[in-house]
Amino acid sequence: TDEAADATADTAAADGDAITIGFAQVGHESDWRTASTKSCQDVFSAANGYDLQFVDCDNDSATQLEAVRGFIEQDVDYIIIDPIVSTGWDTVLTECEDAGIPVIVIDRTIDDSDKYVSWVGSNFKTEGLAAGEWLKAYAEAKGIEEINALVIEGSTGASAAIGRTEGFKEIADREGWNIVDSQSGDFTQDGGQEVMESYCKSYEGKFNVVICQNDNEAFGAMDAMKAAGVSYGVDGDVILVSFDACTAGLEYVQKGEINADFECNPLAAPFVEQVIKQLQAGETPEKEVYMEEHWYVNEDILSEITVDGEAQPLTVVTDDII
Ligand code: AHR
């Protein structure tokens, strides 16, 4: 809202003190998350003139609300939230607004309140659409006529999971694919392994695609498939698709064990710093900032896919990229 935008902190910077920022981070569930935390710690360092109060909320919504209220009590200059779930935010964001503390949301979205200054992140539905469009083009190129897909979703209620599910399902419905099952692996390696172990038992020989909504789930799913004697990747029976494109994920793409990996950019902090600089200068930042992302494959049998009517390049992973 305009009030939120106007609620520029009482500029500690103006008198030369550090700018205090409270960051309520989701947790430490994935490689992506580690990169996101490091990005914020690097940008909002003491050397750069910031005092960063960091709370790892361990994937617990109550802890995250408590962290935000703690920042209000400390009267920090700005609050950064990466919302674990997309709802249940309006009351606490009103409290931030009443306290005159601007909130910047990163990565996942808040869907039941607009009482924040700016959001910086990814279009998760587009990521899901891209995975679907890539699978369609790949299956056609390889002469695969029937798709029986198992989905390992991210954390329930997280906009990253909701958007990727919606996007992929839109293409699956359009193409008449069979989604055999779709369960949450909570964005963790253990979760991905557990769900895949149960899928391998329940659906032996009945699937040819596995969609993991992040790389860590894919690592767990690979372990489970190996143990169950299911072959996957470029030379296997099962097409494995992942999201995030973290370093380890891209190494598996290069080896041909993951067929395609759809990037989710974790490096929001430099964009957040821009927002803070604009607020310090009394300017109104953009309400939504989308970060640039790429889609990575092992083989160049396809050079691009069409998503939402627009041709988009695919990037073949090489040593330079990793
Ligand atoms: O919200 C972004 C998602 O959360 C990333 O895909 C995943 O790795 C993380 O845990």
Précis, in short:
By secondary structure, this protein is an alpha/beta fold. It has helices at 2-6, 31-43, 61-74, 90-98, 124-142, 159-175, 189-202, 215-228, 247-255, 269-280; strands spanning 19-25, 50-56, 78-81, 103-106, 118-121, 148-153, 178-184, 209-212, 239-244, 260-263, 288-290, 295-297, 304-307, 310-313, 315-316.
Please tell me about this protein's structure.
This protein has 322 residues and is α/β, with parallel strands linked by helices. The chain has helices spanning 2-6, 31-43, 61-74, 90-98, 124-142, 159-175, 189-202, 215-228, 247-255, 269-280, and strands at residues 19-25, 50-56, 78-81, 103-106, 118-121, 148-153, 178-184, 209-212, 239-244, 260-263, 288-290, 295-297, 304-307, 310-313, 315-316. The protein has ten helices and 15 strands. Helix 5 runs parallel beside helix 6 and helix 7 packs parallel to helix 8 (215-228). Bound molecules: alpha-L-arabinofuranose (AHR). Alpha-L-arabinofuranose binds next to helix 2 and strand 9. This is ABC transporter substrate-binding protein. It is found in: Cell envelope. Residues 21-260 form the Periplasmic binding protein domain.
